[in-house]
Amino acid sequence: MNPEFERNVWLELTPRRVLMMAGLLALTFFAASLAGGLGWGLSSVASLLYYFIVVVWGSRNAAMSVVGEIRDRTWDMQRLSSLGAGTMTWGKLFGATSYNWFGGALCLALIMVNVATQLGPVTAAIEFVYYLAIGVIAQAASLLASLIAVGRRQAHSRLDLFVYQAVGLVAALVVYYVWSAADPVAAMLSHKPATDFIPWWGRSIDARAFLLASVAIFASWTLLGCIREMRLELKMRNGPLVWLVFLVFIGLYVAGFDAFLSADMKSWDAISLRLLLALTTYAILTYLMVLLEPKDRVHYRWMAGQFGRRHFLTALKGVQAWMMSYGATLLVGGALALWLLHDAATAMAGQALVLATLGFLTRDVSIFVLMQTLPGRRRGDLGALAILFALYVLAPAILNGLHAASAMYLFFPQLAAPTWLGAAAAWIEGVIVLGLAVTRLALVERSGAKAAA
Description:
- With 453 residues, this protein is mostly helical.
- 76% of the residues lie in helices and 2% in strands.
- The chain has 2 domains: 1-236, no CATH class; 356-453, no CATH class.
- The chain has helices spanning 3-12, 15-36, 40-71, 75-79, 85-95, 98-119, 121-151, 158-180, 184-190, 207-233, 241-255, 270-292, 297-308, 312-316, 321-339, 347-373, 381-401, 421-452, and strands at 197-200, 203-206.
- It has a two-stranded antiparallel sheet with strand order 1-2.
- The termini are far apart.
């Protein structure tokens, strides 16, 4: 058995705690049956308890699984053990939450019996997979958030712990609301018809099968993300292949939902809409990853040195996720700009808007890198976020107050901007900030070499 999982199970599932959980749940179910009868009322109570025990409480325990070890000063000793990243992740994630899964299993048994009796065994099996998936996603997302913070060497106060838990709760809420649209149990309780089919890539797919597969796949990706972050914490190097596969998957997955765009976009053809969805997804991932990943100047200088020596394969192994996401955004944006040439009516305005978006993305990403090169101990992402807030919120508000809204194309993409002037301004700003970031990295390297000499 996984030694880390076994250790956590021994700590969590003590006889006293097991008897306490079983006794309290039995009394709760008995009281609910007396109040509401043996039907959906009792099943609803069991469902609420499952969400509280597994999702809410479990996500907190998952976030504490590594943070608690750091607080107790035992994490460094565990990192020096012979356990691999997968073993450590599995042991932390499911061992630290084993008590929650014990209580959740008792609730889930009652839910499954009721659903199988009312709607049949097939629906019960589908509900079983959904409940397992939402619990795993909530806990894994909380663990992933805590591991990212550990990698950034952040403090772990109660507020930080609440943030890690909130990440898991938000992920669970997204899964819950998406699944509720096609859930027959939720439809029966709310007396609203469930969605039967979902349009995806021009085809109508059974909603329950599609959403169930989606939830299971995203749960797997979240678990894989935890393993990759654990590898970094154990001083292992992650290659670019997994993130590249994820980019291909998420681009194809999101691009298939072009039928859900607003009526204002229906004049665009299907390929343009799908490229636009993929472009938006990759841009969001670029912002997210450039914020979360450490922007280490030493690592960037090492990559530059490897490229300079023509060790391209070695350098590519050190490419970060935000760099690959940025490259995917440029690639899809260029494809969209070229595809828009076939429609003479919207080619000029559409191409200018796409190129302006890529230019401002280059500017914003370069701001994050530039802020890491400035002297001082408290440099970095907060300063970059403050600059972006000034560019996207404060500057437009000032321009509106001065009745100069026509100049907003200087700060973010504007469809009403002069056709190519907005794109030119965006790329000029992007190249300038990128040049400053590269120059600062070079200056820091030279100063470090002189100090060493």
